[in-house]
Amino acid sequence: MSISRLPLLFFYAILLVPLVSHSLVLQRDPYVLHNCSTSGNVSSNGTFRANLNTLISTFSSNTQIDYGFYNFSAGEGTDKVYATGLCRADLTPTDCRICLNNSGHELLQLCPNEKEGIMWYMNCTVRYSNNSIFGVMETKPIKYLATGPSDDLVSKLTEFNEVLSTLFYDLRVGASAGGIFRKVAVGNATYLNHTIYGLMQCSPDLSEMDCSNCLVEAQSYNKICCNGSLGVRALAPTCNLRIESNQFYGSTLVESLPSLSPPPVPAKSLYPPPVSAKGKKSNSSKNTVIIIVAAVVFVVLIICIWLCLRVKKQRKKVEMDEISNAESLQFNFPTIRVATNNFADANKVGKGGFGAVYKGRLSDGQEIAVKRLSMGSGQGDLEFKNEILLMAKLHHRNLVKLRGFCLEGNERLLIYEFVSNGSLDQVIFDPTKRANLDWQMRYKIIVGIARGLLYLHEDSRLRIIHRDLKASNILLDDEMNPKIADFGLARLVLLDQTHSSTNRIVGTYGYMAPEYAYYGHFSIKSDVFSFGVLVLEMICGQKNGYFHNNKNEDDLLSYAWKNWRNMTTSNIIDPTLGVGSKPEIIRCIHIGLLCVQENVADRPTMSSIILMLNGNSITLSVPSQPAFLTHNNVEPDISSDQPILASINEASITALYPR
């Protein structure tokens, strides 16, 4: 033992309260508590230890995670190690990684040969084991720290404990209701002349029930060890609670969570001070008016504060309910590993910018498509969250259905319904397969895509802009019904919001509207532009970026526009379609050109497009010149004042196709 620690340990020993068998010491800042398991030992220079060292280092090197919870595993068989790191929710990602790195390396020194260990720092917890600890509630070992009891509270323990129980209940309910990225709640209560601030937190991989049970277990020891104390910490492997007489958590945490405390009441009266006897009569009317006005202002202010807090709380509750609904779709990793035959290459059916896609079969016989995000993807975690929370809310026959997801260790998996005929680009751009796709089938696909977009833009309870609509993001089921897929880049906007903007241009060149490619402005009309490009591709059977013909034209939009003006639209039509449906095909060329007009305001909405597709009696307006973009694979310089050029496809979306 280090000599430098002896004075500190001696100080703790003096203040030790022998009420329970759990550790109970005066809270210090910073303090360190740890526990090493006696269940088994490993070599300090063996493979198990090397894997553990790697995991501990990962806490400080992984910059993708920004929600304060890390769960990783490394190794195989008896040398496999599982590790978790949990930070107090108000820590910045940088401070969190520093805390985890320090506590993790100290734990390695204190537990050099043990198979299991846990370290509690002031603001973070690091834990490792040779057994899987992901999503498993653990309340042993549990440790307590407390300050000395307050004399005025000890004399009225019954009343004090009632106030504390109410605060604990609110905190436990709030923390348990958290989502898959964070389970934490803060609040305060007042008794006598004391304000009590509290925090409860669980590992976010626990279910709502497990989180609640863990906190109940931690809370149950409070009356035994810490009656009348205003400074208490209960530390378990998968949850913790803390109360203090001062606000120990950051204001950012208070603002980001639903309020568990009533709004503060002003301590001083808003009434004006009394006037002297001299001039009292002359000022009585004026004072009365001031009092009335002040009272009205006070009442209005209180009502406004109450309404704002209520709206904010309801909004947060809706968000938590949505995340909880998404949690019901969670699969465990072993289930998906079995379904895909351990992600065998024979089951790989596609690959995109964020990882590979595998075909799988669940134990009930249901076929699934599993998108496995690659660990090296810089944007994978963000798109993963985005896609879960969006897709869990969307249900339409022309949108691919999210069956579930898996979040375990380094693994990020999205599980979809398996669509047997793969993606549209595998059919429409293949000379052999395209010949079997007659106009009736192509028209059916065009209408289905339009209906899916209409749902996203207007008919769902959200307004969603896809931002990367293209042929490889359209999947075809066994009846060739189209399903829009991959919402990793989708953006949610307000129902009354007409447009938005971004500094990061991501998507696929050729399908991007000019206002988005150059300036980062996007709206529902950006999706309309992409739809227009898709319509023209369906008619000519060639990809816009690699379009070619006998006259060496290399731009589909310019070629379509030139032939439209010259009334030679037959040159645009795929020769395999024949002439039987030519009037309907020409009408679709007309609709496609309306969608790709350079002026955003001139492009129709998806509701208008549906009417155009379904009603031949509707007169179409004359299209203006489409936007012609120069081919450039240039990364946009978002710091420059110059217009942004079309970017490379930083987030190419996964294409699914059967083998």
From TrEMBL:
Subcellular location(s) per record: Membrane
UniProt keyword annotation of Transmembrane helix present: yes
A molecular function (GO) term: ATP binding
Protein kinase domain ranges (all copies): 343-628
Parts of the chain that traverse the membrane: 289-309
Positions of ATP binding: K371
Cellular compartments per GO CC: plasma membrane
Keyword NAD: no
Gene3D superfamilies from the UniProt entry: Gnk2 domain, C-X8-C-X2-C motif, Phosphorylase Kinase, domain 1, Transferase(Phosphotransferase) domain 1
Keywords: ATP-binding, Glycoprotein, Kinase, Membrane, Nucleotide-binding, Phosphoprotein, Receptor, Repeat, Serine/threonine-protein kinase, Signal, Transferase, Transmembrane, Transmembrane helix
Annotated signal sequence range: 1-22
Highest taxon listed in the record's lineage: Eukaryota
All residue ranges annotated as the Gnk2-homologous domain in the record: 30-133, 142-248
Membrane topology summary: Single-pass membrane protein
Broad class of the protein's primary localization: membrane
GO biological process, one term: response to abscisic acid
PANTHER family: CYSTEINE-RICH RECEPTOR-LIKE PROTEIN KINASE 27-RELATED (PTHR27002:SF1104), RECEPTOR-LIKE SERINE/THREONINE-PROTEIN KINASE SD1-8 (PTHR27002)
Protein name, entry field: Cysteine-rich receptor-like protein kinase 29
Native species: Quercus rubra
